[in-house]
Amino acid sequence: MTPVVPEPSPPPEGSATESGTVRLPPARSDAPVSPATGKNGSMRQHETQAEAPHTPQPPVGSIAAHRQRAVAPAVSGLAPDLDADLDAYEEAQADGAPLPQGRFLDRERSWLAFNERVLELAEDPDTPLLERANFLAIFASNLDEFFMVRVAGLKRRIATGVATRSASGLQPREVLEMIWARSRELMARHAACYHEDVAPALAGEGIHLVRWQELTEKEQARLFTLFRNQIFPVLTPLAVDPAHPFPYISGLSLNLAVVVRNPVSGHRHFARVKVPPLLSRFLEASPGRYVPIEDVIAAPTHLEELFPGMEILEHHAFRITRNEDLEVEEDDAENLLQALEKELMRRRFGPPVRLEVEESIDREVLDLLVRELKISEAEVYPLPGPLDLTGLFRIHSLDRPELKYPKFIAGTHRDLAEVESASPPDIFAALRARDVLLHHPYDSFSTSVQAFLEQAAADPDVLAIKQTLYRTSGDSPIVDALIDAAESGKQVLVLVEIKARFDEHANIKWARKLEEAGCHVVYGLVGLKTHCKLSLVVRQEGETLRRYSHVGTGNYHPKTARLYEDLGLLTADPQVGADLSDLFNRLSGYSRRETYRRLLVAPKSLRDGLVSRIHKEIQHHRAGRPAFIRIKVNSMVDEAVIDALYRASQAGVPVDVWVRGICAIRPGVTGLSENVRVRSILGRFLEHSRVFAFGNGGEPEVWIGSADMMHRNLDRRIEALVRVVDPGHRAALNRLLDTGMSDSTASWHLGPDGEWTRHATDGDGGPLRNVQEMLIDARRRRRGTATP
Q1: CA R_g for the chain
Q2: How does pLDDT run across 604-619, given as a tens digit for each residue?
Q3: Active site annotation includes 315
Q4: Closest listed residue to residue 81, CA positions, set 717, 639, 605
Q5: Whole-angstrom Cα distance, residue 8 to residue 446?
């Protein structure tokens, strides 16, 4: 049994005792939070859940600890030998000393720390002003999703009695209380950044975000006309009285709580007015002056239009966040598409998990909302208005380029560019000559991946196209190309993941459009999301068929390809083509193939493949051969992978982890992880690529693909990594990882206590290099347009 690590005490934190026991430093992020009084009132303790009967559990972090989730029951028949592989892994782990408990940071706290890093970019005066407003909007949007999914899921598990202690050691209730306390702090900082810093700075640049009372009479008159003509007709005031029950408040909707009095009876009444979500969040009162739409609706003369003959006593804005995660029982659904459509209709009625109110709200009105919404006091967040700062996306879209990051237009990858011709390049000919490693958004998506599929659709020698779609845009040229291919008689197979979170409506729409065009549309394996990013083109070339492939780290989404940092491999390699053919056959038909030539595929081989390579680095290091582990991912929380990295660190292998979001590793703990470094980089582009590099005894091995190190990716999704074989490509990826992890690069560093520290300046106060700006400038130098 893994020994319990005692509470930190001398010897110093992070040191090894004489007996060899590893002492972990305390993590402020993991400290239980007891109910405390907040500025909105005391937190109310929920009923204590009944404790589940105790059953022996394997060590947290072992593969056996989550074996039941490794393969969904619906597909267990495809992998009958999985347990044997896991048992072999457990036996290999038994050779080492037990790893200490408390070695994992809490994932929810780590996610909040990620969003805090987003907030720090908004707070940074060196960030261009409109980009600061954009980061404020991103922070708010991120937090909305966190409450809709993570907090809602945690509350649901607590309510049903199935929640268990987290890998960090916290009880579910402790995690929930920590979230309430920490999110309250961050939301207060977020509001302060807007009111005290960003909004005044915007005003200094002629962009005034004002409230109704700050408008001139002329501006108010202009907005009254707008209200009468475009807003009033779509408003529906809903009364609350014995004849009118409290109305349903949809998730993320902005609302006004209005209190009116009947001048005849003297009775007070409550009414709710929903702010129309399809209208602009900020309305232009006059050039450069913008007012929140709820202020326009709540203007005294405007409310009198809504409640004629009544006295308007008060009004307050409020906003509800609800559980909007989906639960679809695929085994019981004859038609997954129809089942998901029904669940999307029910999504709007999920239970509330957060109530945001203006801090000036009347206590009686707040009590009514808390009572009718059946929400606890701990879930109420009083804030200075305006609420819902995701509306700042609208402000960021203003045409003020001098207040944004300098414009960057990606160019065509040099291996695909036609130097002496204005005609589009022949991508198939380029791929017959060499593999092409793409790095978006620095390399254009439209002239590479999009052009690859468009050329395939138009080429009469192309016989078939097979494609996965997880997310795509509303006016997708990728979908158009697939439809063109099908209509020209090509065989087109499209794996559409209609359960891509918050893109379900769009994906259902495109699935139906593809089906109508004659594409073969399938939804993958029951119980597993199809998250891999794959394209396969089969082309007749003389007497033979040649397969052209694309394996990427990001979605086939032309718009986000300009904002997300991603990698992709275009290749005519026969092994990759054969692997993709086998994998598509598994996804669309019946296939038991579990191993591939140049792919690692979840849920069967990906985790085990990475763990075995981590163990191999230990062997190389012990034999005196070059050994290192470098990983770049969005999230790192899988206990089995983390434990393997701890083992590598203990053996002396240097381990670098570049993570954008959540990370459960404790780096820098003596005796456990002193050889582990963790960095995070955030900036104008969203770091989204996944890279896995190993020293491999002097023959570096590098993989790229779609998988993050999370249970859902490794156990409940079809994910794919492809091995990069071109020496130049491997060297380029290792240089990228070296740059991201360098102490001379601006980044956040993770400490053993779970706290992130920003490193943006050197010892002399000068700015550290920005890896994204370096890559932009490198592309500009190739085109002769580099900044001086």
Answers
A1: 28
A2: 899 999 999 999 999 9
A3: no
A4: 605
A5: 54
**What per-residue confidence (pLDDT) applies to 555?**
87
Neighbours of 589 (CB within 10 A): 8
Angle (nearest 5°) at CA 338 between 337 and 339: 95
Closest C-alpha among 71, 73, 504 to residue 325: 504
- For residue range 176-226, what is the model confidence (pLDDT) as tens digits? 999 999 999 999 999 999 999 999 999 999 999 999 999 999 999 999 999
Which candidate in 396, 439, 440, 531 is catalytic?
Answer: 531
Question: Is 688 marked as a binding-site residue?
Answer: yes
Task: Give the residue carrying structure tokens 């261009």.
Answer: 128
The structure tokens listed for 150 are 């993570």
Q: How far apart are CA 139 and CA 282, in angstroms?
A: 18
For residue 546, how many C-alpha atoms fall within 13 Å in the half-sphere facing its CB?
Answer: 14
pLDDT above 60 (res 84): no
Comparing CA positions, the residue from 740, 721, 727 lying closest to residue 569 is 721
The encoded tokens of residue 717 equal: 């999704």
Average pLDDT along the chain: 84
- H helices of 549-667, where? 574-588, 606-622, 639-651
pLDDT band at residue 563 under the 50/70/90 scheme:
very high
Distance between CA atoms of residues 37 and 32, nearest Å: 15
Measured CA angle at 691 (ends 685, 693), to 5 deg: 140
Residue 756's Cβ-side half-sphere holds a number of Cα atoms within 13 Å equal to 29
Q: Please tell me the predicted confidence (pLDDT) of residue 504.
A: 52
CB contact at 8 A, 389 and 509: no
More confident residue, 719 or 242: 719
CB proximity list for 364: less than 8 A, separation 6 or greater:
none
Residue-level pLDDT at 473: 54
- Going by C-beta distance under 8 Å and a sequence separation of 6 or more, which residues neighbour residue 501? 149, 325, 326
What are 552's strand-pairing partners?
533, 568
Predicted pLDDT of residue 589: 75
Instruction: Consult the annotation and say whether 272 binds a ligand.
Output: no
**Phi, psi at residue 697, to the nearest 5°?**
65, 25
Q: What is the dihedral of CA 12, 19, 29, 631, to 10 degrees?
A: 110
The reported pLDDT for the residue numbered 499 is 57
| Partners of 319 in the β-ladder | 254, 356
Closest C-alpha among 5, 174, 82, 42 to residue 607: 82
Is 173 marked within a binding site?
A: no
501 belongs to an annotated ligand binding site: yes
pLDDT attached to residue 755: 96
Would you state the pLDDT for residue 165? 87
88-143 residue pLDDT tens: 334 344 457 899 999 999 999 999 999 999 999 999 999 999 999 999 999 999 99
Q: Is 132 annotated as a binding residue?
A: no
State the Cα–Cα distance between residues 77 and 527, nearest whole angstrom.
13
d(CA 68, CA 83): 10
719's CB contacts (< 8 A; 6+ apart) are 531, 532, 601, 602, 606, 705, 706, 707, 713
Closest CA to 175 of 49, 353, 31, 319: 31
Percent of the chain with pLDDT over 70: 80
Q: Does 749 carry a binding-site annotation?
A: no
Q: Which residues pair with 261 in a beta bridge?
A: 268, 311
